[in-house]
Amino acid sequence: MAETEVAGAAGGDQGPAPCEEGAELAAVIGATVPTGFELTAAEEVQEKLGSASRISRDRGKIYFEVPAGSLPQVRRLRSVDNLFVVVQEFKDYQFKASKEDALKDLEDLVKKLPWANPLKVWELNNSLKKKKSKRKKLSVQRAASREKLQDGGEEEGSEPKGMSREEDSAQNSASVEPPHDQDTGEPQAVEAQNGEEEQEEDPEQSDPKDELQEGSGSEAKAGEGQPSQAGTKVLKFRVTCNRAGDKHSFTSNEAARDFGGAVQEHFQWKADMTDFDVEVLLNIHNSEVVVGIALTEESLHRRNITHFGPTTLRSTLAYGMLRLCDPQPTDIIVDPMCGTGAIPIEGATEWPSCYHIAGDNNPQAVKRAANNICSLLKKQESKESSTAPGIALDIIQWDICNLPLRTGCVDIIVSDMPFGKRIGSKKKNWDLYPACLLEMGRICTPGTGRAVLLTQDKKCFAKALSRLGHIWRKGQTVWVNVGGLHAAVYLLRRTWERAEERRSFW
């Protein structure tokens, strides 16, 4: 049983080491990642930050220690959804049998936790966000000024009503969603408020911090257990509890309520469920308890897509799939069923030395993908002082079973295949899957080519693959959770066999 809301007690502790005077502040960072791709995220952290990661027993989370000064690099990781700084971790927390005693222990725990250094990390993270927000506002102003001058109008000094305020209000309204008693995934209100039709999130790793609004950073300093000084803004906070396990005498709502009350009393902060500065996290997985402070206000997987479709893939999952096939410079990478372009856009961003081709048979999907590519180019232009070089990505409308590509010209195929639920049907998949695999085999380079394919229709996929075993050899399988659906990512390797012309399989 899993829930989302707060709780506490005593057991073997782990947390950030005390920061000695003059020593650089160290932080233990927790990150939520797509379930099944924890090892991929750990590899990226090691590669880009030089830090070893520990994978949580609660799937979909990793922990690693970095200097607080590395926070900008941490936020640029491609495989993580949400980030939080760990206050303290209890690996074997002993909950009392009675509800009253267990909740009382949680209340008492607040006073014993080492809040000082994690709150300093939170402050540093806030200052980084404010700098980024200021740069974003300036780039919007410059872009607006350029457009007015190009149109022959005069440059105005008034600040454009840019995206930051509008985005904030949309996400604020999404935050009203109360904590839920069942950990069934990310609140869908967020998607609705932002006008997205995104695929539902992984229930095991979705995190309520996706609800947070951006740019709420307070100028006030968060003192450890000290009432606010005169003239200093009182920080607003909320507590979110994520609970999994069936041996707890309390609900996550009850834990969040009592733990939150103790936090309010300890810091003299003001509780606010929607317009808060600080989100305190209480993650309980059986006997494992982690207390943290959220560092992200919106999931980092929302970085690329502005035009959403009915089954838009998360950028973090797209990154994991691409990394699985180990792209090399000059590789040609194709997504024959690209939808809104999440996979090729992530690929073109992270592997710019490869050439990416995206295609779909649905004209509306192709239009959305093209709009997403344009949005990415505009974002690049706003970051650069001069004209951005563009991205190595083309988008085409085509028939997946009759691709306009030469035989054996593609190195890698990466695609999110239709599950037969929101797109297509299970019945149609019995004809579509073998035809797709055959055509993919035709365009893929024999011997060295590979494909990474995501599907929830595992039975149909296995049957199609068994009929085409002479073309494709199944390698690694990664089990993932997509919108509450148990799906699989298959790594296939192209054999040396020639792919014959399309024929009937059943």
What does this structure look like?
With 506 residues, the protein is α/β, with parallel strands linked by helices. The protein is built from 12 helices and 17 strands. It has helices spanning 38-49, 71-75, 99-112, 116-150, 163-174, 189-193, 252-267, 315-324, 342-350, 363-383, 426-443, 458-467; strands at residues 2-4, 13-14, 26-32, 53-55, 61-67, 82-90, 236-244, 270-271, 278-285, 288-294, 332-335, 355-360, 393-397, 412-416, 450-455, 472-482, 485-494. Strands 1, 2, 3, 4, 5, 6, 7, 8, 9 and 10 form a 10-stranded mixed sheet that branches. Helix 3 packs parallel to helix 7 and helix 8 packs across helix 9 (342-350). The protein starts with a strand and ends in a 12-residue tail after the last strand. The model is unreliable at 4-14, 17-23 and 147-231 (pLDDT under 50).
Key descriptive features of the protein:
12 helices; 506 residues; 21% strand
Secondary-structure blueprint of this entry?
Layout: E1 2-4, E2 13-14, E3 26-32, H1 38-49, E4 53-55, E5 61-67, H2 71-75, E6 82-90, H3 99-112, H4 116-150, H5 163-174, H6 189-193, E7 236-244, H7 252-267, E8 270-271, E9 278-285, E10 288-294, H8 315-324, E11 332-335, H9 342-350, E12 355-360, H10 363-383, E13 393-397, E14 412-416, H11 426-443, E15 450-455, H12 458-467, E16 472-482, E17 485-494
Parallel strand pairs: 7-8, 7-9, 11-12, 11-14, 12-13, 14-15
Antiparallel strand pairs: 1-7, 2-6, 3-5, 3-6, 4-5, 6-10, 9-10, 15-17, 16-17
Helix pairs in contact: 3-7, 8-9, 11-12
